[in-house]
Amino acid sequence: MKLIGIGDNGQSSLLPQYLEWIEESEVLVGGERMLSFFPNYRGEKVVIKGGLQTVVERLQKETRPTVVLASGDPLFFGIGSYLSKKINMEVYPYISSIQLAFAKMGESWQDAFVVSVHGRSMKGLAQKIDGKRKIALLTDRENNPNRLADYLLSFGMTEYRAFVAENLEGENEKTGWYELEEMRQHEFSSLNVVVLKKAAEGPVWPLGIEDREFSQRKPDKGLITKKEIRVLSLHALRLQKDSTVWDIGTCTGSIAIEAARLAPEGQVFAIEKNEPDLENFFQNQRKFRADITAIHGKAPDGLENFPDPDAIFIGGTGGEMADLIHVCCQRLKRGGRIVLNAATIENLYRANEAFAQAGYQTSIMHAQISRSKPILGMSRFVPLNPIYIITAERKEEMHE
Fold this sequence. Notes:
Elements: E1 2-6, H1 16-24, E2 27-30, H2 32-36, E3 44-47, H3 53-61, E4 66-71, H4 80-86, E5 90-92, H5 97-105, E6 113-116, H6 125-129, E7 134-138, H7 145-154, E8 160-166, E9 174-179, H8 180-185, E10 192-198, H9 227-237, E11 244-248, H10 254-262, E12 267-272, H11 275-287, E13 293-296, E14 311-314, H12 321-331, E15 337-342, H13 345-357, E16 360-367, E17 370-375, E18 378-383, E19 387-394
Parallel strand pairs: 1-4, 1-5, 2-3, 2-4, 6-7, 11-12, 11-14, 12-13, 14-15
Antiparallel strand pairs: 7-10, 8-9, 8-10, 15-19, 16-19, 17-18
Helix pairs in contact: 12-13
């Protein structure tokens, strides 16, 4: 069985040997557009529609010479990865749409960051691509260049220009450069590839964003996990680039935002009971280019809508500490960590007790931070409120 990549110019894109294999086969499998390139095919045509499972089951039983057609390089965000795991087949790729797009641009592409929003949600795209100099995006009918422009502009990513390549190698091929505002309004073919290129420098936000940069509650500012405590807490969470994170009592979103930037391939979910704080959160996530799922609610209610996490930060408990910790301990993935910030001795005691009852072991850091402040040409230290940083992990002897 053979899997052959094909271009939008149909039979013209295939080597003579590939055309011979197709002619000699008795079954030809592919999407409607691919099969339409072979109107005179004498064997049986099988159209791929919807999911691949039905096609796989049929191909696993097929004994006749069979060729499967796929667009471009079948192993590059294509069906080849899935099919080759299920069926013993030979793969013969064509040029990928990304290669063709960069060829039309006349630029190298080995340094490009490639991401697909074809059949996938754009959620989390902002932190994945922020700061990258070249980004190639595989789009689809819904996640088209117009919607992509809207998305990027909502996060202020105006330092990027876009190259859109439509119907590559087809009769209606068209390529061109667009500013994001232009791309938002232009009409494009549903078959396209978008390449973003940095035309100017954007903002840089290293770990430990200054507190003053965040939109906060007015007039009583200060309801934010301070920079130093934030960095220590994030370190305690031991985030990986693909971690799924919960931020409970997110308030301004400082922890959630920095977590999203540390885990750009993962997901961050936040919950906050105060609506005005949530409004500040939304302003902050747009400013710092962190696309996070945030809901209004009082945990543990609402957590059932989040996927199981690798890491949980608890900045506020809303008086439901025991129930909240119980739910978090039940949902945390094996090997995960929970970090809770407590400002009072009473909450420290309650948290430590609740973790022990759930079968978790804790380590506690008492952080007393002071910052220098100028006074009469000299400097003195002004202390921040001391914080207990509690890190909880599942005991090794626990079993599922």
